[in-house]
Amino acid sequence: MQAYLYNIISEQQLKEILECLYSCLNLPIQALDEAGNTLCGFGTATPFCMQFKKLLSEQSAQKGSCKELHAKAAKRAMDLGEAYVFSCHANLNHIIFPLVNKDTLFGAILIGPFLMDEPDSTLLLDITRRYTVSTEHTLDLYEALSGIRIITPEMATHISRLLSYTFTPLIPSALQQLSESRSKIVQQSRISESIQMYKSVESVQGQSYPVEKENLLIRRVKERNIQDSRKVLNELLGYVFFEGGNNLNIIRSRAIELCSVLSRAAMEGGANTDVALKISNNFLQNLNSTRNQEELCLELQKTLDFFIESMFVKNSGKNSEVIKNAIQYMTQNYNKPLTLEETAAQVQLNPSYFSSLFKKSCGSSFKEYLNYIRIEESKHLLSNTNYSIIDIAIAVGFEEQSYFTRVFKKYTGLTPKQYRK
After folding, report:
1. Which end of the chain is more exposed for a tag (fewer CB within 10 A), N or C?
2. pLDDT, tens digit, 9 for 90 and up, residues 118-159
3. Which Gene3D superfamilies did the record assign (predicted)?
4. Quick one: CATH architecture of 317-420?
């Protein structure tokens, strides 16, 4: 029966790719099926591996075969969403890259064995602790170690990337699948940090919902700051997880509320109402198909990205990316005497062209948008600190209190003093 892998990529094409990689890397390389069986490969087994398998076949079988180890490593690589470096039963290093299609692991590319440091007695001592090996056989294994190629950790990283660049484009939907796996891991790490933060605070049980973080999320979305918006969203999700535990229904309800908050912020920030409603409806439809907390959180984060994208006027992808980078720079440096010329240089555009492009994309001039960012930050400081108005004006980038007051009233209809009351 033909391996499923060959329905995705022809056997001949796969062999040609593996042969090219083997010729360039000079490391054994194999294509495996989903169970860890070798389908094809290049590079003979090393003398060390042959001796290890021969001498310790019964003992190593008790700990799991190489095939089982490779299948387990491939699954781990799929969960990570990238190539995975691991050690085998003999403490030799390998790199495995998962071949994934539509959430299904159907094979892997395995490179190794290799070492990332000069072999010493430590490696063999560990083997003799785990297995029964005679002194004579230990010496034989030590001599065979000279046949194992040594590469640097940096080289192992480059090989991992090379595997991704080589095989990901060949497999339908693989790039999206691996990217989402990586996004889940990063997001869950941020959420876990937030949960631990809430756990470390005394009497969290009696604390109310962190409204200030929700307000901060609204400000970051309206500023079109994707990275900071994601950060605050995941902090809010950390509170939701801590409060709701593992109850997926509670988390779904909170996610719907957060989607509503994001939708309102996007529309206030200039997004088309119809587009924002479509994004919300799409989230609600996808929410029902989420199987666990990880999928739900990733879906909400993607929805956040969609809302921020919707706040940009349609233009070419290149120009959209330029404006996003410019706004990111502005939100990071608004408290400095920032100029249009400096920001244009940051995104490598002529100042005049950048000014025109910015106005077209954002619906306001560079200066107006910069003042908007500064006023939003000053509103937060006025509401949550006892700093003087002049100190707040300087902190958000205004050089004079009188000018700050005029701009603040233009945007809010109130003076800073009136707003603070």
Report:
1. N
2. 877 777 777 777 777 777 777 878 777 878 899 998 899 999
3. Homeodomain-like
4. Orthogonal Bundle (1.10)
